[in-house]
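Posted in: Protein Modeling Q&A

I'm a second-year student putting together a small comparison for a lab meeting, and my supervisor asked me to include a predicted structure for Cytochrome c oxidase subunit 3. I've never done this before, so apologies if this is the wrong subforum. The sequence is pasted below exactly as I got it from our records. If anyone can share the structure token output, I'd also love a short note on what stands out.
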Amino acid sequence: LVSSGLTITWSHYSFISNDVAESKNRLIITIFLGVYFSCLQLFEYINASFTIADSIYGSTFFISTGFHGIHVIVGTTFLVVCLIRLLSMHFSFYHHFGFEAAS
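Accepted answer (user: helix_wrangler)
Welcome! Here is the predicted structure, written out as tokens:
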């Protein structure tokens, strides 16, 4: 989480500094980190020795990490849309709220 926060901040800073290529590269790294985290969470769910119905711990674990996983998936999707818009030159120095909101 810290690394993806760092890379998206770096991407935004690069964009504001008019370095679109660097911004694109950092955004791709951030998207990769989001997908990687989601894959690790799926792997953890598949290999968990307990289920949501086993105990209060199982319920709490799957509900809290499930909501966080949905948050990461939605955020990663927003960042993919931002990458497409960045590559299509839809953002400018004065008009990039979508990028800021997604990051």
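A couple of things worth pointing out for your meeting: The radius of gyration is 17 Å. The chain is about 80% helix and 0% strand.
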